[in-house]
Amino acid sequence: MSKVIVDISMSLDGFVNASNVRAEEPMGDGGLVLHEWAFDGDDRDREVLGGGGAGVGAIITGRRTYDLSVPWWGADGPSGPARVPVFVVTHTAPADVVEGGVYTFVTAGPEHALREAATAADGRDMCVMGGADLIQQYLRAGLVDEISIHLVPVLLHHGTRLFEHIGDDHIRLVPGEPVGTAKAVHLRFRVLTR
């Protein structure tokens, strides 16, 4: 059975980007430190990165993440040559879309995007990879099966916190085995209350 997995890098103080996010600094001032593990990490970091994407049949992201990331992702999306379909939750589709891209713009909301992603995933997992607001919506709606956090040893002090605005009820989690490297501690949790 397919799962809905949140997968994101986060600072020790809970931020998924630094402050002052803009086109030329999509992770905010100094925020790229959150992704160093994926590009400059060791073999264990690469194993986590490769293993996390292996069973993914569809990706769900928000419009702001798309707008900030598409210059780097290009037509192939965040999965590169694997060309995993990406469903972008947005109020309006952009006028200028990457030609031949893997992107589908969903204006009917996060739950509708999840249904479309499930069809495209064809039994494989779906990965919700940002931004924080979209992840919070999925958590509030009880639609997340697993949370994968790449906890980076840095205190950003400012930016966008991941676990704000997720509702008033406790969300119980079961931890998996952590993988620690010099660049990140990779944590995986199964969501109990859904």
Number of strands: 11
**CATH class label:** Alpha Beta
What letter string, H or E per element, gives the SSE order?
EEHHEHEEHEHEEEEE
Counting helices, strands and paired strands, the structural category is: alpha/beta
Shape summary? globular
Rounded to the nearest angstrom, the distance between the terminal CA atoms is 15 Å
- How many domains make up the 3D coordinates? 1
The largest sheet, given as strand count, sense and whether it forms a barrel, is:
9 strands, mixed
Supply the CATH architecture. Answer: 3-Layer(aba) Sandwich
- CATH topology, anyone? Dihydrofolate Reductase, subunit A
How would you describe this structure to a colleague?
Helices cover 25% and strands 26% of the residues. The chain is α/β, with parallel strands linked by helices and 194 residues long. It has one domain (4-167, 178-191): Dihydrofolate Reductase, subunit A (3-Layer(aba) Sandwich). Strands 1, 3, 4, 5, 6, 7, 9, 10 and 11 form a nine-stranded mixed β-sheet that branches. A two-stranded antiparallel ribbon has the order 2-8. The two termini are 15 Å apart. One of its GO terms (biological process) is riboflavin biosynthetic process. This is Dihydrofolate reductase. Residues 3-172 form the Bacterial bifunctional deaminase-reductase C-terminal domain. Pfam families: RibD_C.
